[in-house]
Specification:
Layout lengths: L20 E7 L5 H6 L7 E7 L38 E5 L16 E5 L30 E3 L5 E3 L1
Antiparallel strand pairs: 1-2, 3-4, 5-6
Amino acid sequence: MGSCGTHTWGPWGPCSVTCGTGRSARQRNYMWPSRANADGCRVALTEFKSCNGPRMNCRVQSEYEPDPAESSGPCAVSPWSEWSPCEGCGVRARTRHYIVPRAHKRCSVGFRARTDNPHGDCPVTPWSSWSPCSARCGRGKRIRTRIYVTRDSRVQQF
């Protein structure tokens, strides 16, 4: 074990997001921090894994991207609209329509696209302060977060 021995891993922390894919972290410490520092130990003290926020129904999928051939002929569609303002969970949408009336009876073209865009025009809070360092000595990690605000004034962390 020596001076670089560590305690067992602590529990996994909460997911960094409330919807979609984020990160979770857990930590451990050296058994003898001062000896580990003196000996230059470089054992990982923080571990990360991917996680899914509890609101999986908010996870955004790109539903459809157009084929350039769909811009002409009997199934021609209009250009995409501008992206909508940010909705719940950082989701924005856009739409389009058939140019030829009643084309929907014989054509199957996607009309809605959605994207997760918390960094675009969605309102976000300032970054939080940095967390304490995960290590008392040597290399460690610090984390900070920010939150985006949905239309109904709820906040979502990412």
